[in-house]
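seq:
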Amino acid sequence: MAEYKSVKIEKGRGGWGGPLVVTPTDKKPYIYCVTGGGIHPLAQHIADLTGGIPFDGFKSSKPFEEIAVAVIDCGGTARVGVYPMKKVLTVDIHGTSPAGPLAMFITEELFVSGVKPENVTLV
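struct:
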């Protein structure tokens, strides 16, 4: 069994939602990165602090129930709501707020945006 640590993720400048407390577990070890171009530095930072496993969600996929947190870069309406709809904690690097057809699922308990590495601290 791995030893995981918790982080608090707060909204960044111009952001919305949160704060979220993320703690990977053996059943939910993945820091799921859906930003394109590999593992985003923010996802890697969260993985480094928590002991979670960074995973590139553009190259492959994992079941929603194995994702500790999804790191996205959506300024629009698609990915911004998909993960909260599935009850996956979601961190957007852009300062977005609830919008689009899935806006009803984007809550402060599941979503935080405008996040930079300095908005992530160990609990």
